[in-house]
Design a protein that fits this description.
Its cofactor is L-ascorbate. One of its GO terms (molecular function) is metal ion binding. The protein has 9 helices and 13 strands. The two termini are about 25 Å apart. It is α+β, with helices and mostly antiparallel strands and about 375 residues long. The longest helix is centred in the middle third of the chain and has 31 residues, at about 160-190. α1 (about 60-75) links the parallel β2 and β3 (about 75-80). The strands form 2 sheets. An 8-stranded mixed beta sheet has the order 2-3-11-8-13-6-5-4. A 5-stranded mixed beta sheet has the order 1-10-9-12-7, with no helix packed on it. It has a single domain (about 30-315), classed as Jelly Rolls. Gibberellin A9 binds near residues 125, 128, 214 and 310.
Length: about 375
């Protein structure tokens, strides 16, 4: 297992990206897994098969549901348009995130993640600290419900800047959460469970009523040598699903299999949100929907901001495959029930081994298709 270099202040003492005229050894990206070296399909050239699917929520129910189902099965991700979240809500959130990252290092360092793998604050998420190299990015993680407490650390005077920031995040949170509930309903329809009152209706309600959310703001500074650095290394999201608001600068790439290749998600669709399926949704759907490896690359000319909004179960919920009462006879749950924290522990342990934590909770190996 690769050992991580020591990181000061729980990962909040970032390298001074602004002053960099080269990528130092500490940030020089090295491939860990085979996928890391897979070729990149140029966004403009991405034809037919490699064009990222687009789900338009305005397309009447059945057609949008069918497109979402195929995309979740075949890609584990898609672009979501017609989602109804007002432009100005997205624009304000993005603008405020940019203002946060533009603050002096000392202001941001006041909000450093606390020791012991704390899940909120400014700095590198604990899981990413396991990588042998640091990434070309700054990050800030927080549960949106706690935004007013959390950001007192950055703005102790609680002045106008503080209020503008918190109001924009609260608006973004409310919109994303409502959208999360709508997408959950679409996914349940797609799974053909909507008519199954026990497996469908009850579980859907339980998941919807207990959904938890986490916001993680990413800022990828422009980079003097983008091919030598990485913004965010290849990973799957561990929760149910993630909405990513990305700035007009491209950078997000999705891994497609057979043959392995990275497809760049176009950033030109105004106000489109990207939906990424996470590992626990992979489990919930018994592998029908796929969690997807994705990463963020950096570029020479511009900073890039992304604002992933992670939706998942509460910490004490056991997530198990949903088996519809109408499932074909003989179909079995392929995954063991697991809570989010249990899953995170497994994933930590497997870090650097090239084995997905999903393999650890897989039961009926012989029936399982490749993931
Ligand atoms: C709710 C979440 C989702 C987290 C953990 C926690 C807060 C930060 C998220 C990320 C963001 C960066 C990649 C990732 C892999 C990471 O290390 O931190 C994500 C992770 C996950 O999806 O597992
Ligand atoms: O920056 C992006 O587009 C992706 C961010 C992401 O995947 C994450 O934070 O988990
Ligand atoms: Fe991610």
């Amino acid at each position: 297992m690769p050992s991580s270099p020591p990181v000061d202040n729980n990962g909040a003492a970032y390298f001074d990206f602004r002053a960099a005229d080269r990528v130092p050894e500490s940030h020089a990206w090295t491939a860990l897994n085979e996928e890391d070296s897979a070729p990149v399909v140029a966004a403009a050239a991405a034809p037919g098969d490699d064009a990222v699917p687009v789900v338009d929520m305005r397309d009447g129910d059945t057609s949008a549901v069918a497109v979402a189902a195929r995309a979740a099965e075949e890609w584990g991700a898609f672009l979501l348009v017609g989602h109804g979240v007002p432009d100005d809500v997205l624009a304000r959130a993005e603008e405020q995130a940019a203002r946060l990252f533009a603050l002096p290092a000392a202001a941001k360092a006041r909000a450093a993640r606390r020791p012991g793998g704390s899940s909120t604050g400014y700095g590198v998420p604990p899981y990413l600290l396991r990588y042998p190299k640091r990434m070309w990015a700054e990050g800030y993680t927080f549960p949106p419900a706690a935004v007013r407490d959390e950001f007192h650390r950055v703005w102790p005077d609680a002045g106008d800047d503080y209020h503008r920031f918190c109001a924009a995040m609260e608006e973004y949170d409310a919109a994303m959460r409502a959208l999360g509930e709508r997408l959950l309903a679409m996914f349940f329809k797609a799974l053909g469970l909507a008519g199954d009152e026990v497996t469908g209706g009850e579980t859907e309600r339980k998941i919807r009523d207990t959904l938890t959310s986490t916001l993680h703001l990413n800022m990828y500074p422009k980079c003097p040598d983008p091919d030598r650095a990485i913004g965010l290394a290849a990973h799957t999201d561990s929760g149910f699903f993630t909405f990513i608001l990305q700035s007009p600068v491209p950078g997000l790439q999705l891994l497609r299999r057979r043959p392995d290749r990275w497809v760049t998600v176009p950033a030109g669709t105004p106000r489109a949100l990207i939906v990424v399926v996470g590992d626990l949704f992979h489990v919930l759907t018994n592998g029908r929907f796929h969690s997807v490896l994705h990463r963020a690359v950096v570029n020479w000319g511009s900073d890039r901001i992304s604002m992933p909004y992670f939706l998942g179960p509460p910490a004490d919920m056991k997530v198990a495959p949903l088996m519809a009462s109408g499932s074909p006879p003989g179909s079995k749950a392929v995954y063991q029930a697991v809570t989010w924290p249990e899953y995170m522990v497994m994933r930590e342990k497997l870090f650097g081994t090239n084995v997905s934590a999903l393999t650890m909770i897989r039961v009926a190996k012989e029936e399982d298709e490749e993931t």
